[in-house]
């Protein structure tokens, strides 16, 4: 009678490797979220790997490209908005909850450069991510309308478009406009009748601040040396390009008269 061949047990290291892989993926996602939030899609993949404490090869094992990693972080942020809306679906005072939720989404999004770039571009989130967000938002909208806090002739398409408009306005507000003021003004269009939102107070002007010559954002004056004119490198480069373009246009208009 033939003896059964004994099978060796699976190597004990396999579960540990799977746990390490999950841990590394979580580290990469966490590092990518903070990096993209600060610098947008321009952040090098090597910087994300450095923040995560792993090699670039480890990043590529979990995400085939930087674009795939970027999409994953944006989808995670949208899912957080969706989860928050679902938790508020049965909250008291649905009108107040609805408007506070809209303001919070704009406030958190405008701080996230990567999310702003994704929403302003041709970004298409993972299947179901956008649909889930819209469905959760529609529930908050319907409850607010039933409470007569939101006009009945708007739908979730109107609200999502308004959110995008608020995000754009908050990014482009001048230094004398308080954060959230443009969002409050826009959200007033959703209210029935002539109820007016109490707008945030305008920020006090500080003596040690000036306005960026390009975008108008506040710039803290330097203690020594030449006064600061720009809020960062991006605006400084933009101003340099504008000066170079103006100089080139001026040079092209110069007509040299022939010598007699």
TrEMBL record:
One of its GO terms (molecular function) is DNA-binding transcription factor activity. Keywords: DNA-binding, Transcription, Transcription regulation. Residues 44-63 bind DNA. It comes from the Bacteria. Residues 22-81 form the HTH tetR-type domain. This is TetR/AcrR family transcriptional regulator.
């Amino acid at each position: 009678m033939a003896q059964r061949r004994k099978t060796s047990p699976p190597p004990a290291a396999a579960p540990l490797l799977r746990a390490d892989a999950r841990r590394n993926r979580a580290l990469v996602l966490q590092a990518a979220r903070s990096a993209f939030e600060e610098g947008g899609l321009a952040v090098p993949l090597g910087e994300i790997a450095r923040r995560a404490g792993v090699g670039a090869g480890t990043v590529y094992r979990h995400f085939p490209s930087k674009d795939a990693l970027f999409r994953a972080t944006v989808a995670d942020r949208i899912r957080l908005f969706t989860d928050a809306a679902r938790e508020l679906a049965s909250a008291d005072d649905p009108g107040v909850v609805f408007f506070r939720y809209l303001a919070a989404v704009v406030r958190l999004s405008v701080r996230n450069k990567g999310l702003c770039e994704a929403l302003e571009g041709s970004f298409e989130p993972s299947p179901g991510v956008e649909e889930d967000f819209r469905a959760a938002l529609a529930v908050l909208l319907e409850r607010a309308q039933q409470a007569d806090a939101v006009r009945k002739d708007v739908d979730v398409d109107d609200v999502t478009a308004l959110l995008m408009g608020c995000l754009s306005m908050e990014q482009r507000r001048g230094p004398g406009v308080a954060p959230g003021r443009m969002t409050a003004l826009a959200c007033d269009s959703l209210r029935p009748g002539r109820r007016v939102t109490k707008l945030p107070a305008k920020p006090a002007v500080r003596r040690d601040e000036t306005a960026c010559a390009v975008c108008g954002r506040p710039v803290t004056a330097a203690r020594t040396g030449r006064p600061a004119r720009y809020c960062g490198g991006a605006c400084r480069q933009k101003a340099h390009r504008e000066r170079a373009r103006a100089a080139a246009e001026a040079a092209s208009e110069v007509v040299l008269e022939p010598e007699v």
